[in-house]
Structure formats: C-alpha cells, structure tokens
Amino acid sequence: MKWPLIAYFLIGTVVIVIAGALAIPFVYESQTLWYKLGSDKTVLRAGQLVGLLALASLLIQILLGARGSLLQETFGVVALMAWHKANGILLCCLAVLHVVLVLVPEGLANLPLGTKNWPEMVGGVLLLVIFSQAISSLFRQQIGFIYKQWRTVHRTLGYVALCLAAVHVLFVADSFAQGVPRRALLAILVTVFVVVLAVKFAPFMGKLRDKR
Amino acid sequence: MKRLSVVSLALLYVIVGVQPVLAAVRSWEMDKAHSNFYFEVEHIYSKIRGQFNEYTGEVRFDPNNLAESKFLFKIETASVDTKIAKRDKHLQSADFFDAGKYPQMTFESTKITATGNGVYEVLGKFTVKGEEYQLRLPLKFSGVKDHPAVKGKEVVGFNGKVTIDRLAYKVGGGKFFDLGVVGKDVEIFVSIEALAEK
User: Which pTM does this prediction carry?
Assistant: First the structure.
C-alpha cells in the first residue's frame, strides 16, 4: 500500500504526541511516585504510562470514529473502520491494565473509593463506559442491539468517554495540575473537539453553501 | 409460686445492687463535632497534621469513682485525613495503617489514676494493626458544666497529649524514616467533649 505524504505527516504527528505523553511520568513525576519505592515505583510508573497510552488511544479512537474527509481520502473508509475496531480493543485492554497497575502498589484492599477520591471514581466510570463500548460493539448482534440505536448510543458514549477521560486525567494526577502537561493536554483536547465539530457540521455547512 | 418469688427477689437484688454503681459513674455521649484524635508528624522539615474523622467512643467518668470510670475509643483507620486525598490513601496502605486488613485502632482504659492538677493518667490497651500495647494517656479533666447551647444537658471536657514512636507500633516499616522523609515520633492530641442529661 502506498500512502500519500500527508499520511506520513499524520502518523508522525500521532507518534510525536504519544512520545511526548510517555515522557510525562519521567519529566513531570507525580508526588505519588515520590513515595513509592522499589518495584511499587516501577509498577506505578508503568501504570501511568499505560494510562497515557490509553488516553492517546481514546483520542485516536474519537478521530477515527469521526472519519473526517482528510482521513477518509488519505487512508480509505475500510482501513479507518478496521483501525477503529482494533484500536477499540486495544483501548479496552490498556484501560484495564492501567487500573490494575495503578491499584496494585497501593494495595487491592485499599481501593480509592468515596467522594474524597472522586477523580479516581470518574476513572472507574470511564472504565465501565470503555468496557461497555467494547462489549456492545464486538457482540452487538449476539446482544440483539439494533444497528441504528447502537450507533447512536456508541457515538454518544464515545464523547462521554472523552469528557470523562479529560476530567480524570486533569484531576487525578498532579503532573497535570499545571505547567506544560496541563496546557498540552488542554490544547490537544480542544483540537480534537474542534476537528470533531468541523467533521460533524461539514455536511450542514455544505448544504448552506448550496442554498446560497 | 415459690420459684417466682425467688426469681423476683433475685431480680430485685440485682437491680438494687447494681443501681448505686450505675448512678455513681455517669455515662457521657461523645460530641463528635467537637472531639477528635489529632496527630502531628514530621515530614523532612515541616510538620504534617491530620485527624481521624470516623470513630466511636465510650466515656464513663466520675472523679470520685475512678475504679468504675472508663474510656473506650474505636478509631477507623480508613478515616485518616490530612487534607490531601492521595496522602491519605498512602497512609491507609500497607506502608502505614494497612486499613484494609486492620480497619480499627482501639484504646480501652484499664486503670485511671489522678496525678493532680486535674490530670488523670489513663492506662489502657492500645490495639494497633491487630497487636495490643500498653499506653499511658494523660488526660486533663477540663470540668463539667451546663452546656451553654443545649438545654438540659451537661458537658464534660478532656484534653491530652502523648508522643508515641510509630515504628514501635509497626505503623510503617521504617523505610520512610530511614530516607529522612517521615518522622517516627507522632504527637497525638486527644480532645474530647461529651454530653449527658443533667
């Protein structure tokens, strides 16, 4: 398969963003990491890295799902749908792995429950949303979900997941409390939001132009 | 009929016999909004303060009947509060209180002695992480008076401070102390207000 130059630019951008995200737990180490020693520290840092990969995967998933004309023309609808499916499964696995890795160092008998730990609870809801998205998509026919209804729910929950992820990451980790990571994440979230809005409103704008 | 009389007499004996003891030592209900178990511990150079938000207490006190007086406190270790949720979670972990495995710390007095100037030395069993230790808790009896805000009730007050070595109670294995991060001496400040009907 021969891709146009723009494809390499898009893939390169994604790779750079992911590499930058993976540097955060090292460059902007959270205070939670300060107080973990030995294997606990390694496991927690691995959990944070996996969490950031899951966030990147979620952002990619939203963009793949939105299927903007640039992506369609560059990669084709079939490839985008296949990647959307594969990335969804990957996202679900990363989310589960993230939860396990960040909870183990603190002890599984010491789960961050209750209003005091609300950012972690938001993460818990996010995990449920991601998990239900994956299951309902993979087994839609077996469950007996009508396609149109499923698509509406799937899209809505996709955007809900993005909002939950933004809140979870911005408030759960002090690495994102201020500075470059916070500003970079907000910039990426706004970019994705604008891209999705542009894709969704493009047909209406086209109709408006035609009427004029 | 004869058996009934014997039972009635026995019951009467129990009631009459026990009554003077119950009347002698008043039972006080802890005012949880105005009582607490505070602590302070060193973190490198600074002092970190915290408290336990969930606990129950039993206060029976009469300065003239110390033998029948009693203090019993049950503190929920998961309710530790230092105003930073992540630090609290760390304190609840196996690195410190191991709250999942040991949800409660208890203190039950075994002997109360007056040491003068309104101070009472309360000797008791202090159970931490499933192990029992002897602890002397000096409590300053602040007095008893009509509650200024609650009609028909009296209020009693106690305040006390004790410093303990947390490592002696296995609250932490010593790794954070060895690193020079968290001190081993913990100052505990007990402040109690308890209410009873007049």
Answer: 0.82
